[in-house]
Every structure is written in C-alpha cells, then in structure tokens.
C-alpha cells in the first residue's frame, strides 16, 4: 500500500487518565503479581486511605480486581489480593528488521495472544508505516481493546525537542525518521519507538529475568551485538540515544577486521556472521558451522573460542563499569555459551578488576517473538509513563 493510498486512523480502546499513584499501583501489580493492599501501601509509601481511593479508581476502569484471600504471616489476618485484569487492554508490538515485520498482540500482563510475520515490501518509511497500519487493522478486528503500540528496531532512537526520532537505522537505511509520531497519527493510538535492545532490556526488567533487580545489564548476540542497562530502576538511554555502544571494544590486536575497520574488536569476533567469516567455507552458514563445531571440527571450535573470549571481555567490562545485580544474555547466537563456555568464564575472571565479585549470569532461551513482545511492553510502559 503506498502512502497515497493510506487509510484513515483505525483508533483503539481509550486508556484512562491515571494519576501518579494509580500508575504506581498498576506497575507494582504488573511487575510483582498479586499483592495485598498493605504491601502495596508499604512499597509506595502511601496511606491505606489514599490507596483505597486509588484502587477504587483502577477497579472502576476495569484494570484491577480483587483476587484470592491470603493469611498474613505475622498477624494471621486474612488479606485480599489485588490482581491485574490482563484482558482489560491489549497492546501491539512490532519489531522491524531490514526485511521483515514481526508483530504481536499482548494483553496487559504482556502475555502474547496473537502473532504475525511478513516480509517488508519497501523500506521507504511511508511504505513501512502503511504496512504496520495494515497489520494493526487486521489485529484490531479481533482485539478491539488495543490501547497503544510500540515499535522496536536496530538503530539510534532519541528524543529531540520532545519528539522521538529514529536518527539512524542501518538495516532499514533510515535517517531522521519521526516514526512514532507518524504511526500515532496513522493508527489513532499512542505509539512509541525504541532501540530494540533497550526495549528488550526494559521487558526483562519488568517481566523477565530482571524482576526484582534495581540494576541489570543485557547483552544480545546474533546478527550483531547489543547492550542495554538499567541503573536504579531506570533504563539508560544516553544523551544521544546511543548508550551501550560496546560492540567495537578491542579484544585481540592481531584479530580480524570488522566492517568498520577495527581490528580484533567484539564485532569482528562475536556476531554470527563474524564466526562464518572466520572459516570462509563456501556455502556454509552459521547453523552449518555450529554443527561442525559440535562434531569437533578444529577451525569451527577455534572460531567459537575467539567468540567466547570476546563475550567474556564484554561481560567483565560491563561488570567492572556498572556492577549490575545480574547480566542477562540473550539472542540467537548464544550457542557460544554451549561451545565455548569455559573460555567465556575464564576471560571474565581475567577481565574483572581486583575485588570485583563474579557477576550473576542469566542465559535466556530466546524466541524471535520476544523482540516484538518488547514493543508491546514499550506500549505498556508508555501508558504508565515509565
């Protein structure tokens, strides 16, 4: 569909106007699950009377209900739990690659209820926006409570003069695209855009391995290498939307040269294509090299050992710089932990500053739908102003 053939905004379910306290209560229930009123009041530092008014408003909007009764440990008194109503609203999540649109619908609890995948017809921004709008229209025919959307992509996404801007997206060939603003107008619902790794980091913090952590680091491995950080419960973006650019950290001064001309950096050793390039066996892709390594092929194992050293250097650097509670590893290139885990761990130990404890590593099994789900979580966080 061309831009000249664009349809009118579809519109979606209205998200209620919520105050700070109401958004805070909803966030606590989303992240930590059902909680008694006394526990919520303690966490947020509000009085029971104030909390009663807040929860009444959330119930009137259909976002929260009363759940089971549990006995409190000290007093033995019964206490009703407050529970999020996940089906009250739905959210659209989209992940854009250089050639594919991955889309999901989640409920308010970030559970995926529908998925869709299709090739990008044209990388021209207006055409991609039309394509996302058409996907939303099809989803909205079944899910008429979609309240917001989030779109994630590899690249630099920042805020300039109060407006979200995709400054650069190499895979899409974009520069200075006001994607969120244009999609909001097109879809008729609030839409945000974000760097895909930062969005995934925020999702892990709220709904994944990072729940309960005030500081968290995420490293993704696959087509590229990405980094996301949470410090003091806040996602780190950086002044120019470029925080976490560690993909060209030097590892081996005698190593191969990456596409940007750096010798022996992380990007020259760790991404899937870097491992393919290390062997240069005609017709063999990453999956084929993985099988060679599993069969004991010396060259394939050396390539993964080099990749493991690069990953260990990254983990040690992140631990030294940020001292996070947990470092999450994700992505379709995590087979490096299977084939070179010993190299990863030994390099981490060598890289750590004296006295720095070994970081807690959480290796997450990864499905590509998680990228799109993080877009839906971006929509949830936008409506809660996080």
UniProtKB/TrEMBL annotation:
Pfam families: MarR (PF01047), ROK (PF00480). The lineage of its organism: Bacteria, Bacillati, Actinomycetota, Actinomycetes, Micrococcales. PANTHER family: BIFUNCTIONAL UDP-N-ACETYLGLUCOSAMINE 2-EPIMERASE_N-ACETYLMANNOSAMINE KINASE (PTHR18964:SF149), ROK (REPRESSOR, ORF, KINASE) FAMILY (PTHR18964). Belongs to the ROK (NagC/XylR) family. It comes from the Bacteria. This is ROK family protein. It comes from Promicromonospora aerolata. SUPFAM superfamilies: Actin-like ATPase domain (SSF53067), Winged helix' DNA-binding domain (SSF46785). InterPro entries: ArsR-like_HTH, ATPase_NBD, HTH_MarR-typ, ROK, WH-like_DNA-bd_sf, WH_DNA-bd_sf. Transmembrane segments: none annotated. Residues 25-65 form the HTH marR-type domain.
